[in-house]
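Table S2 (continued). Query chain:
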Amino acid sequence: MPPERKIDFLIIGAAKCATTWLQMSLTQTPEIYMPGPELHFFSREYARGMTWYRNQFENCEAARLIGEKSNSYLTEPAAAGRIARDCPGVRLIVQMRDPVQRAYSDYCMLFRRGSVSNDIRQYLDPDIASGERFLNDGRYALHLRRFYDHFPAKDILLLAYEDIGALPQQQLRKVGEHVGFEQPLHAPVQNRVKNKEDQVVPLGLRRVLTPLRPVLDPLRLSWPMRTLRSAVARKVNYPALPTDIAEKMADFYGQDIEDLKVYCPEVCRAWLGAKIST
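Corresponding output:
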């Protein structure tokens, strides 16, 4: 990327709020370029320096707009100041989900990976884990304050995850208008990007195969590997979220949601009556 070219927009979160769907939908329009994997530069990789960061956009010459998605930017305390300093004028996008649902979905993702146990209370009970990842990442107002300290409100677009199902085209159009893309965008992705119902290889077998990943990964899309995977993959049996824990979580987020209404009352309204899902 030429050194004089600026990043036009950043999707900064939140995790488990369909930001991958948003990225994939935007990049269906060829004039919009975003690097594939999350770079986490302003949160976890800042020591690499701006030269490394800009090199991640080396294939963007033909794009009218360039952007990036890293959900960790929302929750990393240092990220807002770094972005303001290094990307002045950048447009920010935050897509949020009912925080109780978001936390449960995040837990289910790590359960699927084998990173957490089935003791769901250990991770989602506010009396035990209020400062840990699953609960803390959904305190949107707390995290957004850092960005409003560095950016004017007009540069921050706040969206509700819950609007995607009913109004995906409108959701995408809001983003296009916010980042300054005047032409019609290509249709958004129709299918769910990450489906919890997808079958996975059992954890024990995955651990056995871990040393072989460098050999197996390049072959994962081949017919023999896909056939083998379909033969051993199984549906994940996720722990249910107990009603009493869900109620405690709702109380835990109550004040943060009240604070969030100052920025985006319409987003908070989208959460009313939402059901637990992943």
